């Protein structure tokens, strides 16, 4: 601890390197968790309705098995191929065996994770809470890209995130009181749950998924109920703009669905770092209080 006090730049530097390494793992999480969910659903359905003879893949599949491989030629990745960002640059963005292009999103996720980790370490001094915030950021990154790919927000991410936020408040590591964290989790869930049912009753359609409720509940547990109005407003504003741009670029109608979870995650992370300053600015400059 004294070393980090003498050299304040060490913690952000180590956090950035750690973020690069974790970012490589998050690429695996983003790709495999939806597949694991689908396999679990098929398994449950096959056990519930055995007469349907649902085909199942009984090969072991999790975050570590099988080894990562090229999607095209199925050649397992070498150890040297797993160096964050550097491997992608050395391979010139192509598989070392079949030369199939490797998506640039893999190094971008690694770089994003490193930047967010470094930013957390810069704004929050080394403590149990700031280390927890690193994992909070990792969970948001995973949830964001999974939702972008599949329009799913896995319970395996949102629910532990909620309980961990409440646990931090319970043991006093979080600056948010236990009361504010509990109210934040409840209010976060009920807020979007209410919007969902009002929209469904009025239009007969589902405007969002239950995963969005759970993600906002998690954000409320980590940040407290006081941040929820700003998170909802900011995510709605950003989501509307980027959603319309996305639909416009894809030439789809306004009635097409798009994921809302990424905008909740972005708004929550912004609120974590600059929420208090934004609220002070809003009350003083906009409301004149």
The first-to-last residue Cα distance is: 41 Å
Taken from the alpha-carbon principal axes, the silhouette is: globular
Mean pLDDT: 88
Output the number of helix runs.
Answer: 10
Largest sheet: none
Order of helices and strands: HHHHHHHHHH
Percentage of β-strand residues: under 5%
Structural class by secondary-structure content: mainly alpha
Radius of gyration: 21 Å
Helix residue percentage: 55-70%
Number of strands: 0
Give unreliable regions as ranges: none
Draw up the topology in text:
Layout: H1 2-6, H2 10-48, H3 86-90, H4 105-123, H5 128-150, H6 155-171, H7 178-203, H8 210-223, H9 228-249, H10 261-286
Helix pairs in contact: 2-4, 2-5, 4-5, 5-6, 5-10, 6-7, 6-8, 7-8, 8-10, 9-10
Please, could you describe this protein's structure?
This protein is mainly α and 289 residues long. It contains 10 helices and no strands. The two termini are 41 Å apart. The longest helix has 39 residues, at 10-48.
């Amino acid at each position: 601890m004294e070393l980090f006090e003498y050299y304040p730049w060490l913690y952000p530097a180590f956090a950035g390197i750690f973020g690069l390494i974790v970012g490589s793992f998050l690429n695996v999480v983003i790709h495999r968790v939806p597949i694991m969910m689908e396999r679990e659903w098929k398994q449950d359905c096959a056990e519930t309705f055995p007469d349907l003879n649902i085909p199942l893949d009984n090969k072991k599949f999790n975050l570590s098995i099988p080894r990562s491989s090229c999607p095209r030629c199925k050649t397992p990745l070498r150890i040297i191929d797993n160096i964050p960002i550097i491997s992608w640059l050395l391979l010139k963005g192509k598989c070392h065996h079949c030369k199939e292009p490797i998506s640039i999103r893999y190094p971008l996720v690694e770089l994003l994770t490193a930047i967010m980790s470094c930013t957390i370490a810069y704004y929050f001094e080394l403590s149990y809470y700031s280390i927890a915030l690193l994992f909070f950021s990792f969970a948001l990154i995973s949830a964001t890209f999974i939702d972008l790919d599949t329009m799913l927000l896995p319970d395996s991410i949102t629910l532990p995130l909620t309980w961990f936020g409440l646990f931090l408040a319970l043991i006093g590591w979080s600056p948010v009181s236990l009361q504010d964290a509990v109210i934040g989790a409840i209010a976060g869930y009920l807020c979007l749950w209410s919007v969902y049912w009002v929209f469904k009753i009025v239009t007969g359609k589902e405007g969002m998924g239950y995963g969005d409720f759970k993600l906002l509940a998690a954000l409320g547990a980590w940040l407290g109920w006081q941040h929820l109005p700003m998170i909802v407003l900011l995510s709605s504003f950003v989501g509307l703009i980027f959603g319309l741009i996305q639909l416009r670029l894809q030439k789809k109608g306004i009635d097409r669905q798009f994921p809302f979870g990424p905008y909740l995650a972005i708004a929550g992370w912004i609120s974590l770092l600059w929420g208090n300053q934004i609220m002070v600015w809003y009350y003083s400059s906009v409301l004149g209080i």
